[in-house]
Recover the amino acids of this structure.
């Protein structure tokens, strides 16, 4: 058996977002010892292949894929024409790729747009859609509060939560600095250098 | 076909000598319809009778010759005009002259080589057929009869299992194993998937059988993929240390043997595609080629004479073993299709 060849993350292969699993190390099939001695059996052998019994701490322990992000507590900041809404983003995870297992930041809609653009440019991921920009709601002479309407904010909050949970779980997105900065750093440095997380 | 009510016209009918005993199999036509055809193997003799029936009793049929051909050809759908004939045999039944009454002609194509299996695919067709022709000045009378050829193999000497560790660094590591790399068409794929690391939220796992038909050469290669089967092997989230068994019976699916570079015109290959799907519908996959082959049945003693002759044709083979294998191939009949 040769040395372990550790590959980079598999690349997304097509628009459907398929990821090809790459090979790690060549396990040699036991060619000499288990050459199948077929003496023309009439019924195929369908017995299960041997497998190691599972360790009970693995079976009943916490799963290694815990990742939950809550988008909640919308707050409208400022007055008049310069108002905007921010949302609290709370992330809980046990994935080792994230530096903090529990983090909390505040983000606004344009921050989400920034993240989407960064990922679309730097990675081969098909980024899920964001909830709409609602430009109509920003026009004057509306009967309601426009983008500060409670029902609209709630609708947007739900969309943003779906978006961030979808993208944060993507193995290729987890390999981009912009995602980590978005989720776990207090402010987004728009002059950052894109690349892999440290 | 004659459009004139005067003059003579004829009908041709081709009947095989062993029509009563020879097995028929279903084969899908280009339009998808299934029909039954006589089954032949490599080396078998194709013999029978051509019945020429005159339509207008009493009138004579003038002709420029009557013949019967046995043809094996490959037809690429994008290039219909060119038929690539790899087997072409002809027997003259009658010299130019005239028929005064309906007549029957015997024919025999002895120990015909049929090197490839009949195949009707998405972009290419390989077929064998008999064609009887009455040549005439204005228009020939032609009758074709298709037959189906199956190519048989025996259990391969070397049939190692496929075992590999694949995944995405630090996210998902699995080890998959399939018990063989070469399966016959009624075989069972027995395998397992062992999870070494699961940091993504897997929802379920399936195994697909993909058929890839490749036509064309050089820069004009065209692949046509078809998913023959989708078989879910796991529903739910696995954790480290879990082993998921695979047991996939091939007999239930429409499969052909693996065909590699047939007459340098096309290939038909099969792949197992292991697919894991996570909660956000992302798909993680690993494709692996398998070889499919057609298994013959128990040897029949009555065919031994014909088989002995067929085995003599394999003159190039040096070992006795391969001669015996050839004999087994010529003799073997299939068990139910």
């Amino acid at each position: 058996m040769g040395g372990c060849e550790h590959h980079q993350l598999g690349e997304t292969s097509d628009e459907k977002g398929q990821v090809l699993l790459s090979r790690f190390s060549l396990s040699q099939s036991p060619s000499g010892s288990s050459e199948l001695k077929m003496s023309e059996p009439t019924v195929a052998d369908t017995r299960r292949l041997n497998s190691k019994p599972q360790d009970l701490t693995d079976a009943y322990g916490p799963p290694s894929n815990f990742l939950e992000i809550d988008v909640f507590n919308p707050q409208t900041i400022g007055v008049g024409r310069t108002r905007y809404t921010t949302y609290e983003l709370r992330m809980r995870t046990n994935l080792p790729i994230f530096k903090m297992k529990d983090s909390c930041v505040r983000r606004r809609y344009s921050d989400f747009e920034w993240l989407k653009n960064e990922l679309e440019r730097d990675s081969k991921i098909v980024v899920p859609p964001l909830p709409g920009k609602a430009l109509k709601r920003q026009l004057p002479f509306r009967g309601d509060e426009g983008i500060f309407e409670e029902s609209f904010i709630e609708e947007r909050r739900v969309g943003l939560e779906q978006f961030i949970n979808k993208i944060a779980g993507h193995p290729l997105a987890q390999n981009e600095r912009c995602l980590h900065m978005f989720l776990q750093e207090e402010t987004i440095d728009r002059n950052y250098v894109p690349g892999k997380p440290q | 076909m004659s459009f004139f009510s005067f003059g003579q016209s004829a009908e041709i009918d081709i009947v095989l000598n062993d029509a009563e005993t020879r097995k028929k199999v279903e084969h899908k036509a280009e339009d998808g319809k299934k029909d039954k055809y006589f089954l032949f193997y490599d080396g078998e003799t194709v013999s029978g009778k051509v019945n020429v029936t005159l339509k207008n009793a009493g009138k004579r049929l003038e002709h420029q010759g009557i013949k019967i051909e046995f043809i094996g050809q490959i037809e690429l759908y994008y290039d219909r005009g060119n038929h690539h004939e790899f087997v072409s045999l002809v027997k003259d039944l009658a010299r130019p002259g005239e028929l005064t009454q309906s007549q029957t002609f015997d024919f025999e194509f002895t120990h015909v080589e049929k090197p490839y299996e009949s195949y009707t695919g998405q972009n290419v067709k390989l077929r064998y057929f008999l064609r009887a022709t009455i040549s005439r000045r204005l228009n020939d009378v032609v009758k074709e009869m298709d037959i189906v050829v199956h190519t048989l193999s025996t259990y391969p000497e070397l049939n190692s299992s496929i075992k590999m560790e694949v995944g995405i660094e630090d996210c998902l590591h699995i080890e998959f194993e399939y018990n063989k790399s070469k399966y016959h068409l009624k075989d069972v794929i027995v395998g397992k998937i062992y999870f070494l690391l699961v940091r993504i939220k897997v929802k379920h796992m399936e195994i697909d059988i993909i058929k890839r038909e490749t036509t064309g050469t050089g820069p004009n290669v065209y692949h046509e993929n078809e998913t023959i089967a989708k078989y879910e092997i796991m529903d739910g989230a696995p954790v480290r240390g879990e082993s998921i068994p695979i047991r996939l019976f091939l007999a239930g699916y429409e499969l052909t043997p693996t065909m590699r570079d047939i007459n340098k015109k096309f290939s038909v290959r099969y792949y197992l595609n292991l697919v894991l799907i996570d909660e956000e519908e992302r798909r993680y996959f690993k494709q692996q080629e398998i070889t499919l082959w057609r298994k013959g049945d128990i040897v029949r003693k009555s065919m031994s004479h014909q088989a002995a002759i067929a085995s003599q044709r394999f003159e190039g083979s040096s070992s006795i073993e391969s001669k015996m294998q050839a004999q087994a191939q010529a003799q073997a009949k299939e068990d139910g299709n």
Notes: The beta strands of chain A are 18-20, 22-23, 67-77, 84-93, 102-108. Chain A has four helices and five strands. Chain A touches chain B through 53 residues (CB under 8 Å).
